[in-house]
Write a structure and sequence with these properties.
This protein is α/β, with parallel strands linked by helices and 508 residues long. It folds into three domains: 1-150 and 281-287 and 295-307, no CATH class; 151-277, no CATH class; 314-497, Fe-S hydro-lyase, tartrate dehydratase beta-type, catalytic domain (fumarase, Alpha-Beta Barrel). It has helices at 6-22, 26-38, 42-61, 90-102, 151-154, 168-175, 197-207, 214-220, 225-238, 323-326, 346-358, 402-406, 427-436, 448-452, 492-505; strands spanning 2-5, 71-79, 82-85, 114-115, 122-123, 131-137, 142-149, 158-162, 187-195, 253-263, 268-274, 281-286, 314-317, 334-343, 372-374, 418-421, 439-442, 455-462, 471-485. The strands form five sheets. A five-stranded mixed barrel has the order 14-15-16-17-19. A four-stranded mixed β-sheet has the order 6-2-7-12. A hairpin with an 8-residue loop joins strand 18 and strand 19 (471-485). It is globular and about 75 Å long.
C-alpha cells in the first residue's frame, strides 16, 4: 500500500503553484505565437506581442505573469489503495501548500481571497482557502491538478439550462459577445455539458486543464459528436471578430474544450468558463517516493519577438497634460505615458464614495482633479523592484463610480481626466466619459510584469489598510496603452469587433 506523507503533498502543491505563477504551458505559447503571426489587426497583434514578451520575461525572472495570481482550484484524485501519513485533511493539506506558495519570500504572490463574501470582505492574507475537488479512483497513487484562476476570467463564467433539443452552438455564439474582454482573449473556452448544474460547472473548469490540441483535431478530423462540436465552435467563435483583448481580430479563442456526461432526459445543462492569458495549471502524481515537481521548461520554447514600432505612437507627459491634447486622441491610438498617476480599484472606489457621502472628504494629499487613475492591485515587490507585476484589472467593475470620479468638482465629482484599465466600458461609463470629455485608456491584460517595468516610483498615498487595493501614486515612464474610448465616447471595443467580424465573414 502506498503511503503519502503530509510534507510530500504540501511541498508538491507549493512547488506547482510557484511554477504556474511564472511559466506558461508550452502548448499555450505555441498557439498564441501562431495566432500572433497570422493576426492582421495591428492593435490585436501588438496586444499579443506584449503577452508573449511578458511571458518570456516572467519565465526568465520567475515573477508572476499576472498581478491577479488567482483563486486556487485543486482536483485531487486519490487511489483506493493509498494510505495517508498526515494529521490534516486533504483540504487542509492543499491550503497549507497554498499558504506557503503565496507567502514565498522569493516570489510572493498576491493574496486575493476574502472571507465572508456577503461582508465584511476581509482579506485572508494568504490566499486560502482553496477550492478542492476530491475523487476516489482505482490504484495506489494520488493524481493532482492545481490551477490558479484570475477573477477577470472567472467572473465571465456562464451557465444555462437548455431544453434537450436546443442548440448549444446558438447559445455559445449569443453568449460569448456578452462576456466582453475582461477574460483577456485569446484564450480557451471550457464547456461542461450534461450531468446537473453543479456537475456541468466542474466539468467546464476541469476541461481547461487539458492541453491545446485543436489544430491536431483539425488535421486528423472529428469522429465523435463532441469533437465535431469543438471544431464548429472554434470556427464560429473566431468568426465573431472579437480578437485579442476585445480589440477586433482573427483570433478570439485558441481552443474549445468540452467535457460531457449523462444527464436527465428532460435536461441539457451547459456551463461555459473561459481561461485567461495567464493560463495557470499544472499536473503531478504522488506515488509515495517523495514530493513531485513539474519539470522547468527551456527558455528556447519562447519565441524571440519585439514590439513593432508604429507611426501613430504618441509620447504623453501626464504631468503637463491638457484638455486640448486629450481631445486629439482617437480610438486605437497607441500612447506611451510618462508622469504621475494614481491607482484605485473596487475597495478604494467604495471607500471614496463612503467618505464623500459621510461628509468627511478624501484623505489629505489625495486629489484626483485633472489626473489619471489606473485600475490595478499590484503584487508586492521583491529585491530592487519598485513594484511587483502590475497589470490592469477589469474596468467595468468601476463603471458605477464613473460620474463620481469624472464629474467636475463644481458638480460634486472628483474631476478625474482619464482612466486606465482592462477591457471595455459599459454604457454608464461611456455616457459619463462623453459628457465630461474625458478618456479611457486600455493596458494589456496578461502583460503585468512588462507593465511593471514602466513604473519607476511607487508609494501608498491612502487606504494602506486595503493592501493591494490601496491608492498608490505611480511615476511611470513610457507605459504602453491604447486609446479605448475617446472624448466623444467612441469605443474601440465596439467598433473593432464589428469591423473585423465583417472582414472575416466577407473577405472581399
Amino acid at each position: 500500500m502506498t503511503v503519502i506523507k503530509k510534507s510530500d503533498f504540501i511541498d508538491s502543491v507549493e512547488g506547482a503553484l510557484q511554477y504556474i505563477s511564472y511559466y506558461h504551458p508550452k502548448d499555450f505559447i505555441d498557439s498564441l505565437y501562431s495566432a500572433y503571426q497570422k493576426e492582421q489587426n495591428p492593435a490585436a497583434k501588438d496586444a499579443m506581442a506584449q503577452m508573449l514578451i511578458n511571458s518570456r520575461m516572467c519565465a526568465e525572472g520567475k515573477r508572476p505573469i499576472c498581478q491577479d495570481t488567482g483563486i486556487v482550484t485543486a482536483f485531487v484524485k486519490i487511489g483506493m489503495e493509498v494510505k495517508w501519513d498526515s494529521d490534516l485533511t486533504v483540504q487542509e493539506l492543499v491550503d497549507e501548500g497554498v499558504r506557503r506558495a503565496y507567502q514565498n519570500q522569493d516570489n510572493p504572490l498576491r493574496a486575493s481571497i476574502v472571507k465572508n463574501p456577503v461582508g465584511p470582505r476581509v482579506n485572508t492574507k494568504d490566499n486560502t482557502p482553496a477550492v478542492v475537488h476530491v475523487e476516489m479512483i482505482p490504484g495506489n497513487k494520488v493524481d493532482v491538478t492545481v490551477a490558479a484562476k484570475g477573477g477577470g476570467s472567472e467572473n465571465k463564467s456562464k451557465f444555462v439550462m437548455l431544453n434537450p433539443n436546443d442548440s448549444i452552438v446558438d447559445w455559445v455564439l449569443k453568449t460569448v459577445p456578452t462576456m466582453g474582454a475582461g477574460w483577456c482573449p485569446p484564450g480557451m473556452l471550457g464547456l461542461g455539458i450534461g450531468g446537473t448544474a453543479e456537475k456541468a460547472m466542474v466539468m467546464a473548469k476541469e476541461s481547461l486543464m487539458d492541453p491545446i490540441d485543436i489544430h491536431e483535431l483539425i488535421e486528423n478530423g472529428a469522429e465523435t459528436p463532441v469533437e465535431k462540436l469543438r471544431l464548429e465552435l472554434y470556427e464560429k467563435v473566431n468568426q465573431l471578430g472579437i480578437g485579442a483583448q476585445g480589440l477586433g481580430g482573427l483570433t478570439t479563442v485558441l481552443d474549445i474544450k468540452i467535457n460531457d456526461c449523462p444527464t436527465h432526459a428532460a435536461s441539457l445543462p451547459v456551463a461555459m468558463i473561459p481561461n485567461c492569458a495567464a493560463t495557470r495549471h499544472a499536473h503531478f502524481v504522488l506515488d509515495g517516493s517523495g514530493p513531485s515537481f513539474v519539470e522547468a521548461p527551456s527558455l528556447s520554447d519562447w519565441p524571440e519577438i519585439t514590439q513593432e514600432k508604429s507611426d501613430n505612437i504618441k509620447s504623453v507627459n501626464l504631468d503637463g497634460i491638457t484638455q486640448q491634447e486629450i481631445e486629439t486622441w482617437q480610438p486605437g491610438d497607441t500612447l506611451l505615458l510618462s508622469g504621475k498617476i494614481l491607482t484605485g480599484r473596487d475597495a478604494a472606489h467604495k471607500k471614496i464614495k463612503d467618505l464623500i457621502e459621510s461628509g468627511q472628504g478624501l484623505p489629505e494629499g489625495v486629489d484626483f482633479e485633472n489626473r489619471f487613475i489606473y485600475y490595478v492591485g499590484p503584487v508586492d515587490p521583491v529585491g530592487d523592484e519598485v513594484v511587483g507585476p502590475a497589470g490592469p484589472t477589469t474596468s467595468t467593475r468601476m463603471d458605477k463610480y464613473s460620474d463620481m470620479m469624472l464629474n467636475p468638482k463644481t458638480e460634486g465629482g472628483m474631476g478625474l481626466m482619464g482612466m486606465i484599465g482592462k477591457a471595455e466600458r459599459g454604457d454608464t461609463a461611456l455616457d459619463s466619459i462623453k459628457r465630461n470629455k474625458s478618456v479611457y485608456l486600455m493596458a494589456v491584460g496578461g502583460a503585468a510584469y512588462l507593465v511593471s517595468k514602466a513604473i519607476k516610483q511607487s508609494k501608498v498615498v491612502a487606504f494602506e489598510e486595503l493592501g493591494m487595493e490601496a491608492i498608490y501614486e505611480f511615476e511611470v515612464q513610457d507605459m504602453p496603452v491604447t486609446v479605448a474610448v475617446d472624448t466623444q465616447g467612441d469605443s474601440v471595443h465596439k467598433s473593432g469587433p464589428a469591423i473585423w467580424k465583417a472582414k472575416i465573414q466577407d473577405p472581399q
